[in-house]
Amino acid sequence: MEKHRIGTMDISVQEKTFAGFIAWVKWTTVAIIVSLVALALING
Questions:
Q1: Which residues span the membrane (predicted)?
Q2: Where residue 41 falls among pLDDT bands split at 50, 70, 90?
Q3: What are the helix and strand counts (H, E) for the chain?
């Protein structure tokens, strides 16, 4: 078995997954804030 060397693994799939997760968190946070502002404006 070949000895493990740091920095040689292809992590492109993990990077795409992480980028998608960050985008999902960003847009979910925006949706929650917009919803809370709308509720505050509607309820006066």
A1: 21-42
A2: very high
A3: 1, 0
